[in-house]
Amino acid sequence: MTKKVVTDLDVSGKKVLLRADFNVPMKDGAITNDNRIVQALPTIEYLIENNAKVILFSHLGKVKTEADKASLSLRPVATRLGELLNKEVKFVAETRGEELESAIDSMEKGDVLVFENTRFEDIDGKKESKNDPELGKYWASLGDLFVNDAFGTAHREHASNVGISSNLETAAGFLMDKEIKFIGGAVDEPARPFVAILGGAKVSDKIGVIENLLEKADKIIIGGGMAYTFLKAQGKEIGHSLLEEDKIDLAKDLMARAGDKLILPVDATIASSFSNEGLEGVVSIDDIPADMEALDIGPKTVELFAKELEGAKTVVWNGPMGVFELENFAKGTIGVCEAIAKLDDAITVIGGGDSAAAAMQLGYADDFTHISTGGGASLEYLEGKTLPGVASISDK
Ligand code: ADP
Ligand code: MG
Known about the structure:
The protein is of the alpha/beta class. The chain folds into two domains: 6-174, 3-Layer(aba) Sandwich (Rossmann fold), CATH 3.40.50; 181-382, Rossmann fold, CATH 3.40.50.1260.
């Protein structure tokens, strides 16, 4: 089903409620990384240019007690947004009531207002996080139209996304639209061949993703810590490498179902301890010593994976190939980034928090078609689940 996008709405002169993902990292009342605010700018700027009255809101952190409120106010976000837009941004330190309503009533076309952390409503009965119908209806009553640009919370059914949408015409913001197009599109209607690359720490975190992509992808490449449970299931010695004993049977079953669709590492970079200095070198996958652990795929595996990627038209990647946080064990992840960067006219998508961080930190952010902004939400999307925050957007 095609979803409405903000450009499908007639926003001029309208009070437009805009749910953004302003859940930024904070330390001592200061924002430590404003990337999420920057990512929200295209939709905000579009609405300003098109003469809407822009009413912004978001959750920030988890609000459990009155005391949490002091450190989790959206005020610093409103201030930073004002700097980025080079424009006055009014902040209302309330989530409902007369002050908020009259501030909205006095807005002019092109004005921007931010109201307080939606999770301030959680103190009294989790109204936001449990999608209290009265709260969604109330927030909806504050505007004429709703734009949902918070993909990061799309896997949650909250009052500030689903609750408002059940009362008001809703469109996706530009960020949300990109996620639907690239993550949703890659999984639902991939250009083929479609190659999935899975890695990261644990099989157990990714069972849903593996199961879904096994059906949809033409090839599944497995690296990272999770590969060793598969290799163990093949009867190999894996030393102290990551192992989930209780997932060995599942791994066997997945390998049997996947047949030659599934590609595993052929060599590994091993270590005597889980540290950068622990590096011991590269061994064939059949020769991992019993007292060592594999912290990265080896160069032959990078070569193999690069060959398997050749000609791919869709690539979905979740999970680093090794412990990329340690320089000596980042080569596998770098190698796969390089191989993906070389692909011609392929749609290449990264989902997952650490995978996105790896690509950015290693300097390959520009080599991908899309890097998802939503960790948990992108994983559930890759699992083939319906995300309530996406489903609740009005159909075109
Ligand atoms: P994502 O957040 O993208 O879904 P995960 O959280 O599943 O990814 O996995 C990321 C983590 O996996 C990283 O911190 C990385 O260090 C770890 N990892 C990757 N390969 C290995 C390995 N061979 N041994 C131990 N940990 C690994
Ligand atoms: Mg992670």
